[in-house]
Amino acid sequence: MSKHKRMRSPPLEEAKTQTAVLVIPTYNEAENIGLMMDHLFSKTFKNIKAKKVNKNNWQMKVLVVDGNSPDGTGKVVKQKAKKYKDIYLYTETSKDGIGAAYLKGFKYAINKLKADFVFEFDGDFQHPPESIPIMLKAVEDGCDYVIGSRKIEGGSNPEGWGFKRVFFSEVGGFTARFILFFPFKNFFKVTDPTTGLKVTRVKGFLDKLDMDYHNLYSKSFGYKLELLFNTLKLKPKFKEIPLKFQVRTAGESKIQTQTAKDIFRVAVLLRWHDDFTQKFLKFGTVGFIGYLVNATLLSFISKKWGIEWLSWLLSTEAAIISNFTLNNLWTFKSDEIKGLKIIGKFLQFNFTSMGALLIQTIMGTIGVYLTSPEYRQLLLPFIIVFIVLPYNWFMYNKVIWKKKSGK
Ligand SMILES: Nc1nc2c(ncn2[C@@H]2O[C@H](COP(=O)(O)OP(=O)(O)OP(=O)(O)O)[C@@H](O)[C@H]2O)c(=O)[nH]1
Ligand SMILES: [Mg+2]
Which of 175, 173, 152, 170 is nearest to 244 (CA)? Predict the structure, then answer.
């Protein structure tokens, strides 16, 4: 018998079958939408099926959400739906804004079309259909969220855009990025927050978002920031791919003059109402109240009893009690410590507060030693803001009011 072992070929990686739905909102796009359907079905989707770039079996569907366009966009879509079976039309009763149109479409794509992935895609040829297989490739490589960016290498704004449009796109985009994400890592990772080309995984991401468009801060252009911000909060594996944004060749622009204001308003609202911001503001307020308690009692007790060390000890402890109580009942209400546990946690809080005191004493002493005593008052706020505050924030979140796992 032959001693040769039978050569085993490596197991073939099974090609997954998944459904991707392109949601395309339209308002008066009769001139574009028919051409777009032809392009998608006769070129783009064929290439995806041919697996030139992709490896999965992608079931591609197109859902047009039409704002009841008077120019007959809906009719064109219906005609094309006779030719290509994977076209769906959702006709809105009125033009409710692009944000509302997208959410209606997403809901439909998830519930009715059983989408695994949903694209945000414009039907006016400004988003090149050639980006679709590239985005699906990123998905195949494990991404949950893929974003087309005009601001990374290989991406660009249309050459035909005038100074004003470029200015608004650049300054508006950067301002939105700054307001939404500074100084955290997404500030550096998300280069084009107002882009409209994206694909999102449904399971664990799109199905976790509120799909009721009435709850959007903006039903028009600003929705883009809201979807982006809320999706990123779900911590997707995401990637930007270059987007060469094309100039509009047919149909009229629906970009409104108030878009810049809308974007700014939505960015501020999102950041302000974010849990993290709210917690941090409460933490700051509680810290300030603690300082007032400390200072007031220090002066009061020292005047009354004239014992220096006792005034410092009692006033500092009073500030610690105030900080612990207010943070527990207000800042970290969602992780409130109750019952007998309070005693142990309060002792731990005293301990970490002593840590802050120690850090401040050491840094202050070193600081004065390296500079001169006249800088003492200047050093104090610096030490508080850059060292004590981050230290306390860290200790409160990771030690005292540490989130229970699974929360
Ligand atoms: N259903 C629906 N579609 C809309 C609405 N507003 C815009 N759209 C469509 O959404 C797509 C993107 O719109 P916008 O990015 O706001 O504006 P635009 O007309 O593409 O602007 P340009 O970049 O100048 O071409 C366009 O193809 C529009 O037809 C709306 O209120 N309802
Ligand atoms: Mg457009």
Answer: 152
